[in-house]
Amino acid sequence: MDASIQGPVLVTGGTGFVGSHLVERLTGLGVRVRCLVRRSSSLQYLPAGKVELVYGELAAGEGLEEAVGGMATVFHVAGVTKALSRAAYFQGNLHGTQNLVRACQARGGALPRFVHVSSLAAVGPSPDGAPLDEDAAPHPLTWYGESKLQAEEAVRASALGRHAVILRPPVVYGPRDTDVLEVFRSVARGVMVRIGRGESHFSYLHVSDLAEALVRAACSEAAPGRTYFVANPEPASWSEFAAAAARVMGRRLRTVTIPFRVAYAFGWLAEAGSRRRRKPNIISRQKVLEARCRYWICDVARARAELGFRTRKPLGEGVAETLAWYKDAGWLKY
User: Fold this and answer.
1) How high is the pLDDT of residue 235?
2) What is the pLDDT of residue 6?
3) Cα–chain center distance at 232
4) Among the four residues 62, 228, 248, 308, which has the most C-beta atoms within 10 Å?
5) Rounded distance, CA 146 to CA 152, Å?
6) What's this model's pTM, rounded to 2 decimal places?
7) Which residues neighbour 334 within 8 Å (Cβ) at sequence distance 6 or greater?
């Protein structure tokens, strides 16, 4: 890194999966950290006594002036990865971002370095298997991807744009994640589910590597105004990913292929259940559309060249570490 991080820093989403790992990394570096949290949020993964809390709500615009006041760097990690409606995705990802950007601009004084967590979904899948780079024309496939792309555009169009760094991670896994956990639970039962007959390939990233990429984005003198894909340099197939987990758990895997139309109908039924419970599920028609695509892969050359970013967790090591955490936490039995 060509500079030290400018503190103090604000982290949104600090109680969540990615945000909590980022907070751990920052406090380990001795950086003063403030987190914007809901009053209903669990604080169990925040380092005790090392984080200042400001209570508020991004989508409602509550507490943001206090949260951004005096901050040299803002990490905008909070977002919605599953929701009951298109409006809910945009409320959580676009409107929350717009409110935070406005608060940063309205506070007076120098604008902060703004590190924004977007997603490969903002660009969409590769149509032909060639890794997408940052100059690829965006074609988001789902409501999630659309909302993340519009959030990016809101950041770039603001006065913060020249101070902002946008990172687009792909599939992120690691301790505390609840989404890829469902894949591991299936493997623990000895089953890998495939939608359609073709093998799917995807870029991936361990959460500790994403935390490092975020820190580098905040430190690099080359980063402001730039967008980066961050991922392991080589993609994996879901068969390879499941096999890595099966080796750790001592399972023999059976692949179950589900036709797209059947999976889509099942996604509709899962959504109906989610609406009754008023809680979104990882299984939905939107997620089935994503799973149907064969290539969710990106090119990480720019992040390597400009941020000096290198991943540290190869697939086997990252999966083993993640499964050990799930087992210790009681989230997974094998």
Assistant:
1) 96
2) 76
3) 14
4) 228
5) 10
6) 0.94
7) 188, 249, 250, 251, 323, 327
Six-digit token string for 147? 């909302």
DSSP 255: E
Give the other-Cβ count within 10 Å of 102's Cβ. Answer: 18
Supply the pLDDT for residue 3: 60
Please give the Cα distance from 79 to 76 (Å, whole number).
Answer: 8
AA identity, residue 220: S
Q: State the Rg of the chain over Cα.
A: 19
Specify the amino acid at residue 281.
Answer: N
C-alpha dihedral over 63, 65, 67, 72, to 10 degrees? 170
At 195, list the tokens: 């939608």
Please report where in the chains the tokens 């060509």 appear, as a residue: 2
Contact between residue 9 and residue 77 where contact means Cβ atoms under 8 Å apart? no
Judge: domain 9-176+204-232+296-312, CATH 3.40.50.720: yes
Q: How far apart are CA 206 and CA 321, in angstroms?
A: 10
Q: What is residue 2's predicted lDDT score, i.e. its pLDDT?
A: 47
Count other Cβ atoms within 10 Å, centred on residue 70. 13
**Strand stretches in 79-235, DSSP E:** 113-117, 164-168, 171-173, 191-195, 201-202, 204-206, 227-229
DSSP summary character for residue 95: I
Cα torsion angle, 83, 86, 91, 92, sign: positive
**What does the pLDDT read at residue 188?**
96
Residue 110 CA from chain centroid, whole number:
28
pLDDT along the chain (334 residues), means of 10: 77 97 96 96 92 96 96 97 94 97 91 97 96 97 97 97 96 96 95 88 98 97 96 96 97 93 89 88 88 95 97 96 97 94
Q: What is the pLDDT of residue 229?
A: 98
> What are the DSSP calls for 183-226, one per residue?
HHHHHHTTEEEEESSS--EE-EEEHHHHHHHHHHHHH-SS-TT-
Predicted confidence at residue 108, as pLDDT, reads 80
